[in-house]
Design a protein that fits this description.
The chain is of the alpha/beta class and about 350 residues long. The chain is about 45% helix and about 15% strand. Helix 1 links the parallel strand 1 and strand 2. The structure holds nicotinamide-adenine-dinucleotide and thymidine-5'-diphosphate (TYD).
Length: about 350
């Protein structure tokens, strides 16, 4: 059986990707390499535990020797790199882990992959791909009338998170140009959907709304993000892996620009319908709080290259994707509560002691 190696496959997008991939006809087996930081959760992978096509390894991407061992053991035809420290607020609070994983870790991974790739036979080497999952945040912040980010927008990262991702993008690019490693890079906008940690905007607001807590909107709430349903991001990555041109970068976006306030109000309205409360609308819980330092004002993504070259476009509208997401969080409160209580860590220790 052929394999792909995925890093960060117990995180939000990585876990969605693993689950989605293994549902596809003729899917390769997955070697899932994840350090299981606070953001990694094996419980998100319950549906594929015991599936022989899913091999999980709790490994740090900074551990080059172990990555090399995994590459040599499973001989993957592609490496998909999702692993990262990914939360902007945490990066402002403590940037060092972001440099370590996103910069040093990506470099360590590239070194191991390059050595492995050089040892492949010619046709296998030609077909191999290293797909780097990056973000629109590397391009910085847009003014209200600016056109959306394109693949040729200049890099202007503003947070330690986006700066560390930008550094990793440059390293990936350099391994293509200097050594010929066949790489692909994607720049995606804000994702939302099942299995996202409730410290990110959408699951945070759903969780706090249901708990009757204030809904903390930073600043004036008019910062704009482009939102993409995570399943659409997974489909885009599959397309780029299958047919993307080596050395190219592809923007992935939902064509869904929304202010944070609009997002929170829409969520409140959905909850008012799906889980009404006696004391009035969830909108009454909205509270404006101190702004994030250096808060990027607007992100918007021009994903027309992906549509033109590979025929990808999102299947979900913001409304349909958000409905699915709210339903999932309402049905999966046990997953949320375990994350919040740290219970899932005990569960992992018990479940995987062997
Ligand atoms: P996440 O924080 O939910 O998950 C990251 C995963 O990486 C976790 O499972 C964690 O345990 C693992 N990890 C962290 N450090 C590691 C290390 N040193 N070695 C091995 N594993 C490690 O992140 P996410 O939201 O799923 O994002 C995945 C990727 O997509 C990231 O590269 C991120 O920059 C990018 N991205 C995210 C978004 C978004 O909206 N979430 C948008 C665009 C791009
Ligand atoms: P977030 O989900 O942290 O993603 P990112 O910073 O990568 O875009 O935040 C999305 C937007 O929501 C961002 O503009 C910050 C804002 N936000 C709030 O207003 N309140 C919150 O409690 C959080 C977590 C985010």
């Amino acid at each position: 059986m052929s394999h792909i190696l995925v890093t960060g496959g117990a995180g939000f997008i990585g876990a969605n990707f693993v689950l989605d991939w293994l549902c596809q006809d003729g899917a390769d087996a997955i070697v899932n390499v994840d350090k299981l930081t606070y953001a990694g959760n094996r419980k998100s992978l319950t549906a594929v535990e015991g599936d022989p096509r899913h091999i999980f390894s709790q490994t740090d991407i900074c551990d080059g020797a172990e990555i090399t061992r995994l590459l040599q053991s499973y001989r993957p035809r592609a490496v998909l790199h999702f692993a990262a420290e990914s939360h902007v607020d945490r990066s402002i609070d403590a940037p060092a882990d972001f440099v370590q994983t996103n910069v040093v870790g990506t470099h360590t991974l590239l070194e191991a992959v390059l050595a492995y790739w050089r040892g492949l036979d010619v046709p296998t080497r030609a077909a191999f791909r290293f797909l780097h999952v990056s973000t629109d945040e590397v391009f910085g912040s847009l003014g209200p009338a600016d056109p959306p980010f394109s693949e040729t927008s200049s890099y202007q990262p503003n947070s330690p998170y986006s700066a560390s991702k930008a550094a990793s993008d440059h390293m990936v690019r350099a391994y293509h140009h200097s050594y010929g490693l066949p790489v692909l890079t994607t720049h995606c906008s804000n994702n939302y959907g099942q299995f996202q940690l409730p410290e990110k905007l959408i699951p945070l607001m759903i969780t706090r709304a249901l708990a009757g807590k204030p809904l903390p909107v930073y600043g004036d709430g008019l910062n704009v993000r482009d939102w993409l349903y995570v399943g659409d991001h997974c489909a885009a990555i599959r397309e780029v892996l299958a047919r993307g041109r080596s050395g190219q970068t592809y923007n992935v976006g939902g064509w869904n620009e929304k202010t944070n306030l609009e997002v929170v109000q829409t969520l409140c309205d959905m909850l008012d319908t799906l889980k009404p409360k006696a004391s009035g609308s969830y909108r009454n819980q909205i509270a404006f709080v101190k702004d994030r330092p250096g808060h990027d004002r607007r992100y918007a993504v021009d994903a027309s290259k992906l549509a033109r070259e590979l025929g990808w476009k999102p299947a979900e509208t913001f409304d349909s994707g958000l409905h699915k997401t709210v339903h999932w969080y309402l049905r999966n409160q046990d997953w949320v509560q375990e994350v919040l209580s740290g219970e899932y860590r005990h569960w992992v220790a018990k479940q995987y002691a062997a």
